[in-house]
Amino acid sequence: MRKITRIISILLCFLIFSGNMPFVDSSATAVAVKKSSDNVVVVIDPGHGGVGGTNEGAMYHGYIEKQLTLATAAAMKQTLEQFEGVTVYLTRNTDVAMSLADRAQFAKNVNADFLFSLHYNASPEHNIYGSEVWIPSRGNLYAKGYQFGTIMTAELGVLGLYQRGIKTKVGSKGDYYGIIRNCTLRGIPSVIIEHCHLDHGVDLQFMRGNNPLMQFGYADAIAVAKYFGLRSASLGLDFSDYKKVSVAAPKNAIPHDTTPPEVCTAVKKSYHAGTRTLVLNCTASDAGSPILYYAVSFNGGATYSVLMPWNRFAQNADITVKVPDGASHVIFRAYNQYDEFTDAAPVLVN
Ligand SMILES: [Zn+2]
After folding, report:
1. How far is the CA of 151 from the centre of ligand 1 (A)?
2. From ligand 1's centre to the CA of 162, what distance in Å?
3. pLDDT tens digits, residue range 180-221?
4. Taking the model in full, what pTM does it have?
5. Structural domains in the chain, sorted by start
6. CB within 5 A of ion ligand 1: which residues?
7. What is the DSSP-derived secondary structure letter of residue 182?
């Protein structure tokens, strides 16, 4: 009898603690339309964690991505919890390794409305800077990701970071990035927020400011609060009337751009020998994605300048460059949103 009582009490505990939490198959409620009065469940996923290899994430200039994401997530949670009607979970609170499937399953278990995976970036050539948001490639999850991405890139832009945009990437198994693919499999909206590049000086200036991780976490939280139309009496913020952009849900996957810019040309507009100042008229465009940066080379393409921001809405611009001593030609190079580039024919300086 005592044994039975114990089993019953264990069962009761299990039922109480599992309330709206794990073990409950939430597939039926996940697709239900939420009323505005309903509580929003947000899962923040601090990218990476644990020891060795990709668990550490990007490591440059003393920064370790897995630590940055955890600190940013804590700041994001702290801010978000000051809003009403939101429950916030972290996939990990400590420096532990966790599979991408387990992170997505955690979100499923708590009946998450959205999973936000926080990351810090680096590029193979260490030449790229800026923020970007990766989203699911199709359907309703694309639309939700894009809506959030619009808000998120605006918030990071306010901090001064260059915005590389809202992007999809498709692989052989569906969405290329595992956390997005695993969340999509479970019907959970998800995005990856790449805050900045740890291997580039342009972005590192944003890491050296006043409590930068707090600022990033705050920006993330505000974007989420706007997305869900949340209100905070303690912060004096009310986003209940916030209007999201309307985004259609594509039936087929929105592919990523795998080809370099189709158009890239440069012609000399003027040259001032005294100051060695050259003005080039440059044209660059790509049907698959916007042009984000340009660079120039004065040594036949051996090395290039730091990437400069290109007005992504324009196809043509005058650029002014200082020609180094001894240089006879300049090469203009344009980069698209996926960092594919095309060189224009060399231009004779004088
Ligand atoms: Zn990462």
Report:
1. 21
2. 18
3. 999 999 999 999 999 999 999 999 999 998 899 999 999 999
4. 0.88
5. 38-238 (3.40.630.40), 263-348 (2.60.40.10)
6. 47, 57, 119
7. H
